[in-house]
Amino acid sequence: MKQCHNTSAKEVDDQTLQGVIIVENCPCEAHFTNNASRTAAVSSEVTTQLDLYMQQTHGSTVNYQCSVSVVSGNATDTVFHYTCSVPKADHANALLGLLQVCTNDQVIFSFIPSY
Prior knowledge:
This protein is α+β, with helices and mostly antiparallel strands. Helices cover 38% and strands 28% of the residues. The longest helix is centred in the middle third of the chain and has 23 residues, at 36-58.
């Protein structure tokens, strides 16, 4: 199974969080680079998981939009750079939620290309 790490979520400004998700043993940069529908699917899944986290752990019904803006990698790993629009009041909770995104199988499987 692919391993996913999201350890660099951080606050950029009062409305924005950014981070990096690294998927190990997935040399699939070419699968996502310059493919808007594939990166949109990953963006959608990260958004869904963040919103679910906020609802399940804090009782907040939210719709924070996350988008994958850069995909990079090497022969072994793929790196997804994302940005999420989150109001300042929820930054602390959302940062915790973003660090949990990689524990969800739906997110991990959305990274795996189906050849």
